[in-house]
Every structure is written in structure tokens, then in C-alpha cells.
Amino acid sequence: MIRDLRWVLGKGRTLDGMIALAVVAAILQGITFVLLVPLLRALILGDIAGAWLWAGALTAAALGFAITLWFSSVLGQKAALDLSVGLYDRLGDKISRLPLGTVDLALTGRLARLTSKGVMQVATVPAHLVRPIITAVGTPLTVVIGMTVIDWRIGLTALISLPLLAGGYLLTGTIVRNRDSKYAAASAEAAGRIVEFARVQPALRAFRGSASSNDELTRALGAQHKTYRSLLLGGAAGMSIFAVAVQAVITVLVLLGTALTLGGSLDVPALVALLVLSLRFVEPLMQVADLGSALRVSSNSLAEMREILDAPELPEPTTAAVPADASVELRDVGFSYRPDTPVLTGISFSVAPGTTTALVGPSGSGKSTLIKLLARFHDVTSGQVMIGGQDVRELGTATTMENVSLVFQDVYLFSGTLLDNIRMGRPEASDEEVFAAAHAAEVDEIAARLGDGWDSQVGEGGGLLSGGERQRVSIARAILKDAPILLLDEATSALDPVNEQAVSRALHHLEGRSRLVIAHRLETVVNADQIVVLTDDGRIAEVGVHATLMANDGPYAAFWRARTEAAGWSLATS
Ligand SMILES: Nc1ncnc2c1ncn2[C@@H]1O[C@H](COP(=O)(O)OP(=O)(O)OP(=O)(O)O)[C@@H](O)[C@H]1O
């Protein structure tokens, strides 16, 4: 854990300083406790001069303890700040370098949890956990040494009791850790079910509440409740075991001290003083169990962050190649998300500069995956994806992205103004260029409808706009960006006719680029320079133009017949 913290902090001098001062503070606190023995002894024996002397020494040690504790607290707070800044920096930096294909909803959810609760848990480790744990261990050790100096038999007994207490602590830890991870898993499941429950509300209400989704949520909440109860019971049992171990040690020390006093080898003042010391000796240890389980929770969060930070990135070339033109070529491309489950196999075709290729295939045939490979969301498992005669791995992610514009179904707008969202296509564009792109994509009518025109907020994720409006904003971005290659997922089937026509007109402004389109509109398919038909297992079934493929009477002709029968009206409107 400390190694991981040091890794986040870089040099970690603040952390090292805090640890060194915490060790000194723990020893000074132990010495303060030990000095109680001669002080009490002097007081009981009526040695006033001696008592003053010991009281002075005790005050000096206590003062030293307070000062070092204060400095180590300050360093602990500084380490907390450095840690949170370091973690946010590293996570932010990593997200910008992760393959886009891996930045999905699951990762977003994990990051939301880790950057809120997780970072705080880790940042407070030095000040609130490491330092108290050093005190909880260093102080009793110093006290044991002091006891040994006063009476070696009592000291030795206290020393031997330490492994017993450590055993009790470990047992507590094991019980809490196992139950805590079960509770964490049940909580994550319950949180997922609640989100799902909220998401499917429209469907649930439309179908008068299908019981299954409710059942799942009830089951997940029940499991969470059960694991929480088990965690509380386990934690209480663990604490009790530890407390019993502590009491046993005190009892043994009292019995031994009494026996030694009765035997005449220990005087009464020393016995009283040692008994006081025994109580102080176990006091810091009592905190260890609590601190230990908190430390484990923080260490789990840090491990999860490291998992994200250590996730593999796409290799980037030292010098990015330059594409010769706007052509696209796939050479025997194979891809799988998981080992041994290929999604695409043996895909080869080219898109000549300025032409349109329509991708057609059943749901799940890999059309979106293929488009994402071209934008380097992932690297191929085998074969090559080329842009302008260069492998995208030689172009690197940045150059690849410079050469493509993406207009996808699930357009995500960031919460900001309409204009800012369009400007994102080319941040350095002038206002005139932004307005021209917005006008071409017919976004100006959206601006006119919204209260604050171009400065209207679009809401988180663009939630204040309709699906078709979000798509037009995304087309405006693409027009502004003016990249030579357009990757488009049409999805106009999900739009109302007015929006569909607006999107369709907006897309005309993106003609002239090399276009690879997941085609849903029959008009796009029939007019495409080339149609690539995929099979349901991600292979190429046919490549050609509409007339040839219809004449072949193969899978494409079957697809065409099915579509025109199902949506004959759309031919009439196109
Ligand atoms: N991130 C992912 N991780 C694992 N498997 C995935 C992932 N994305 C897609 N798949 C799987 O890859 C296959 C192809 O999916 P893809 O979305 O590319 O198909 P598609 O032809 O675009 O489908 P649709 O027309 O329904 O959008 C499917 O079996 C899908 O379940």
C-alpha cells in the first residue's frame, strides 16, 4: 500500500517525512507513558524532589510528542492533497490515452465511484490511517521496552502477548475483509439494479410493471441487506474477539504483577505504576482493529484505480505516418473482443477517395465494430486497417482521428451551450465558420426554438435536445471538422419524418468525402458506390453495387426484399 501511495506521489518525500515524524511521535508517546512509572513511584514513596524531576521529564516528552504529532499531521494533510491531485491527474491522463473502445458505460460508472469516494478514501490514508497505525504499534512497543527495563518478567510477558493480540487482529481482519467484499459486491449489484430499474421505467409502466425487473431489484436489495447484517455481526464478533484478547493480556499482567509483589520481588509502588502502564499499553492497540479494516477498504479502492491506470494502451508510433489520400482499405481484418470469439473474420475491401460505401448486415454482424476499427477505437486482432495507404497503427490515434469524422447513433453532447458543442468539431474555427456549419446542418432552427439561441444549454449528455436534434449537432461538428473521411451510422429509422428529412438534408453537406455508412435508409444503399454485405458471423457475404447484387439474387437481394416489404412506404418517400 505504501509503495502504491509513493508511486502516486512520485518522489513521496512528504509521505516519508510524515512516516518518520509519526514514528518519533509514537516513541515519544510511549516514553511519556513509561515516565509515569517513576513519577508514580516517587509520589507514592513521598519523594517530592524525584517527582518534580520525573514530572519535568514527562512534560518534555509530552511536549516533544505534541510537536512531532502536529508536524506529522501537517505533512499528512499535505500528502492527502498531493494524493488526490496525483490520482485525479493520473486518472484523467489515462482516460485520454485509453483505447476509445474500452471507455464504455461500465468504465464510466467505475470512474464516477472511484473519483468521488475512492480518491477520498485513498487520500486520507496517510493522515487518518498510516499515522494512527504507526502510533498504535510504535507506542506499545516503546512501552514494552520500558516495562522490560523496570521489570524484565512483566516486560517479557507483555512482549509475548503482542503476537496473541496480532493474531486477534488478523482474525478480525479476515472476518471483516471477507464480509466486506461480499457486501461491496452486493452493493454494486443493487446499485446496478436500481439504475436499470430507473432506466426501464417507461417500458415497465407501458406494460403495467413486468414483475421480473422488480423481482431482480428486490432480490438484489435483499442480498445487500443480508450481507450488510453479516458484515455488522462479523465486525462486532471480530471486535469482541480482539477485546477479549486485550482483556486476557491485562489479566495476565495483573496476576503476574500481584504474584511478583506477594513474592517480594516487586514493590507495591512499582506494581501500581506497571498496572497503569499495562492499561496504557493496550489502549492504542484497541484502535488497530478499526483502522485495519478502514485501511483494507482504501487499499481495495487503490487497487481498483491501479487496475485502470495499468490497463493496456494502444501502441503509438514515435513519428506518425502521413496518409497519402482519403482512401480506406481493410486487408483480411479479423477482430474479437474476447479470445476465441471472433466478431469479424477475413474482411477485405477498399473505399476509393470521395466515394460512399454502404455497410449492410444483420444485427450483431459487426458493422459498428468495423466502423470503430477504422477510427482506431481498438486495434485489429489480425490483418490491417489502412487510411491513405498507411496502417492506422503507423498513423497513430491522433492522426487517425484527425482524418475521420464520426456521426454515430448515440450522440453524446457535453453540458454546455449549443454553440460550444458544435465548435468542438474544430475548436480553432472562427464564429462565422461555426455558424455556417450550424446552418448547413439546420441547427439554427434548434437555436431559434431554444430560449437562449446559440447560448442555450443542451443539458447533460444533450438531454434537452431530441435524438434527431443531437444528430444534427453532431453532423454540424463533422461539417466544421471537414475531415476527409466520414464514418456514419445512419439510424434515421429511429427518427420522426421531419427530423429524418432534416438529418438527410444535413448529410448532403458531407458528400464528397470518403464515406463508410452503416446504412439504414434504402436510398443510401441504392445510391452507394459500393455495398458491403456482412453475414451474421462477421464475414463478407457480398460486395458490389445495387444492380449487380440484385442480379446475383444472394443475401443482399433477400435483405432488400425484406426491407422493401417491411418499409415499402420509405421507398415512396425517398
Ligand atoms: N464492447 C464489446 N465487448 C464485447 N462484445 C461486443 C462489444 N461490442 C459489440 N460486441 C459484440 O460484437 C458483435 C458485433 O456487434 P456490433 O455492434 O459491431 O454489430 P452491429 O452489426 O453493429 O449490430 P447492430 O446493427 O445491432 O448495431 C455482437 O455480438 C456484440 O455483442
From TrEMBL:
Topological relation to the membrane, as annotated: Multi-pass membrane protein
Top-rank taxon, per record: Bacteria
Cellular compartments per GO CC: plasma membrane
Record flagged with keyword Magnesium: no
Domain ABC transmembrane type-1: 17-295
Keyword terms of this UniProt record: ATP-binding, Cell inner membrane, Cell membrane, Membrane, Nucleotide-binding, Transmembrane, Transmembrane helix, Transport
Chain ranges of the ABC transporter domain: 328-562
Compartment list: Cell inner membrane
InterPro entries xref list: AAA+_ATPase (IPR003593), ABC1_TM_dom (IPR011527), ABC1_TM_sf (IPR036640), ABC_transporter-like_ATP-bd (IPR003439), ABC_transporter-like_CS (IPR017871), P-loop_NTPase (IPR027417), Type_1_exporter (IPR039421)
Membrane-crossing residue ranges in chain numbering: 21-45, 51-71, 129-150, 156-176, 231-256
Principal localisation: membrane
Example of a GO MF term: ABC-type transporter activity
Family statement drawn from the similarity comment of this UniProt entry: Belongs to the ABC transporter superfamily. Siderophore-Fe(3+) uptake transporter (SIUT) (TC 3.A.1.21) family.
PANTHER family: ATP-BINDING CASSETTE SUB-FAMILY B (PTHR24221), ATP-BINDING CASSETTE SUB-FAMILY B MEMBER 6 (PTHR24221:SF654)
Name of the molecule in the record: ABC transporter
